Amino acid sequence: AALSVAGDVGGGPFTFVGFLPSRAGERTRALQQIASSVQTQVLFEAPHRIDVLAAGLGTACGARCVTVCRELTKQFETVVSLARCRFKPQPRRVRACGACHGRGGFR
């Protein structure tokens, strides 16, 4: 659902990453793998670590677009898609699903 509402219309393959490791070194390596892929990467994140995820994606993925979705298919569904340099996370109480769009996959 996240890819559909995020506007990732490339129709190409994607990778479901799930939750990133909580340890800094393992997390950095995972973010480097995400950045090296040309595919869209779909991640889950806990509410208290969305800021850390956004900072890590910004460092690792540079100018690639990021979409954060929460409460999909529910009354208070929220979808925000921005270039990473403009992404400002807001406090949330629910888990979020994020997509780091593949190169050329977001329009």
Q: Please, could you describe this protein's structure?
A:
It is a single chain. With 107 residues, the protein is of the alpha+beta class. The chain contains 3 helices and 5 strands; from the N terminus they run H-E-H-E-H-E-E-E. It has helices at residues 2-6, 24-36, 50-61, and strands at 14-19, 40-45, 65-70, 78-83, 96-100. A 5-stranded mixed beta sheet has the order 1-2-5-3-4. The radius of gyration is 13 Å and the shape is globular. The mean pLDDT is 75.
The mean pLDDT is 75
Helical fraction equals: 25-40%
Low-confidence stretches: none
**How many strands in all?**
5
Shape: globular
Name the structural class.
alpha+beta
Q: What is the element string, with H for helices and E for strands?
A: HEHEHEEE
Radius of gyration: 13 Å
Numbering strands along the chain, what is their spatial order in the largest sheet? 1-2-5-3-4
Strand percent estimate: 25-35%
| Count of individual helical segments | 3
Profile the largest sheet. 5 strands, mixed
From the N-terminal CA to the C-terminal CA, the straight-line distance is 17 Å
